[in-house]
UniProtKB/TrEMBL annotation:
<dbReference type="GO" id="GO:0008835">
    <property type="term" value="F:diaminohydroxyphosphoribosylaminopyrimidine deaminase activity"/>
</dbReference>
<keyword id="KW-0862">Zinc</keyword>
<comment type="similarity">
    <text>In the C-terminal section; belongs to the HTP reductase family.</text>
</comment>
<dbReference type="GO" id="GO:0009231">
    <property type="term" value="P:riboflavin biosynthetic process"/>
</dbReference>
<feature type="binding site">
    <location>
        <position position="295"/>
    </location>
    <ligand>
        <name>substrate</name>
    </ligand>
</feature>
<feature type="binding site">
    <location>
        <position position="173"/>
    </location>
    <ligand>
        <name>NADP(+)</name>
    </ligand>
</feature>
<dbReference type="InterPro" id="IPR004794">
    <property type="entry name" value="Eubact_RibD"/>
</dbReference>
<dbReference type="InterPro" id="IPR011549">
    <property type="entry name" value="RibD_C"/>
</dbReference>
<keyword id="KW-0560">Oxidoreductase</keyword>
<keyword id="KW-0479">Metal-binding</keyword>
<feature type="binding site">
    <location>
        <begin position="297"/>
        <end position="303"/>
    </location>
    <ligand>
        <name>NADP(+)</name>
    </ligand>
</feature>
<feature type="binding site">
    <location>
        <position position="187"/>
    </location>
    <ligand>
        <name>substrate</name>
    </ligand>
</feature>
<dbReference type="GO" id="GO:0050661">
    <property type="term" value="F:NADP binding"/>
</dbReference>
<comment type="similarity">
    <text>In the N-terminal section; belongs to the cytidine and deoxycytidylate deaminase family.</text>
</comment>
<dbReference type="Pfam" id="PF00383">
    <property type="entry name" value="dCMP_cyt_deam_1"/>
</dbReference>
<feature type="binding site">
    <location>
        <position position="199"/>
    </location>
    <ligand>
        <name>NADP(+)</name>
    </ligand>
</feature>
<feature type="active site" description="Proton donor">
    <location>
        <position position="55"/>
    </location>
</feature>
Amino acid sequence: MELLNDEYYMRLALQLANGASGQTGVNPVVGCVVVKDGRILGMGAHLKRGEAHAEVHALNMAGKDAEGATAYVTLEPCSHHGRTPPCCDRLIAEKVARVVVATTDPNRLVAGQGIERLRANGIEVTVGLLQDEARLQNEKFNHHIVTGLPFVTLKTALTLDGRIATRTGHSRWITGPEAREAVHTLRHRNQGIMVGIGTVLADDPELTTRLTVPGVHPVRIVVDSSLRIPPGARVLNDASPTILLTTERADPAKERACIQNPGVTVIRCGDGPSVDLKLAVSELGKREIGSILLEGGGALNGAMLQAGLVNKLMLFYAAKIVGGEGSPSAFAFEGPAEMSSALELERIAIERYGDDWCVTGYPKPS
Ligand code: AOF
Ligand code: ZN
């Protein structure tokens, strides 16, 4: 009976966390539910980096009644002084009797110490309930906190024959409105959105989040090895930030012109003819961009895949075939000689969006 109850409340905590997805920056999403005698006393979610953690919101709501209660938390309560005081100390101070944790915190400043401290103070702790869901929910945070690199999700719309445009370059639209709306949700859920200069030159996109409900805009990241971006490009001329990734070879005068626009940053990555993508991604990670939606053309997608910098793929297939000898493919890279060396995906999921399908997968480690 207790296990069933536990699962019910942990699911609720996961839902609370999910509601804040996309608005916590490099921080995880976390939900907390405080329960006593079959009654929910407090609920909370971490809503913004630098502001209260989930446990604090839920305990504030529960007030004095938290004594003797059970707290359900989707992530191990923190034990460190970060931007806010440790949550485990607060749970101890409120005399909570039991804490149910979905998964441990991979942040090395916590990493099991939160659980240890709760136990050392006589609190019963259960760990691992709905762990897989909880880990998946924070896959971006888990990657960034451990590697210092952003979690890169490659997203593309493509025809069944793997093309992203017709032989004339025409591409509007491959997928229908439902899939395109889903992409705007993905933009909201990533801190950065990355494209190649080819996309900017061809479409002059805004690269913002346009949803039926308001969303958070990601930082626009343009890979532009020789700063070919035109001064009038939309991504340079609105209030949202844009990062241009270029090389040491780019003309300093062009850089000066670009950074005249407020919100524009230029990062030089390597002195080769094209941007050193490994270096670029690590620079972005250092600037606390913990997640990137890669919406490249075939060349950038291919280069990022080849460099092993893609963590997840979301491929929106339309039931269309365009053929054409030169029509651009979603992945332009040399590719292996043997089928046995193809890049394989694992943990595949397929979802339907209107008339289209999204195939999600993760590159198999080679
Ligand atoms: C929790 N509950 O709701 C969250 C936790 O800089 P701070 O103070 O926001 O701390 C961020 C770190 O705290 C983050 O890297 C992760 O380890 C943990 N996040 N922990 O107990 C929460 N958001
Ligand atoms: Zn905390």
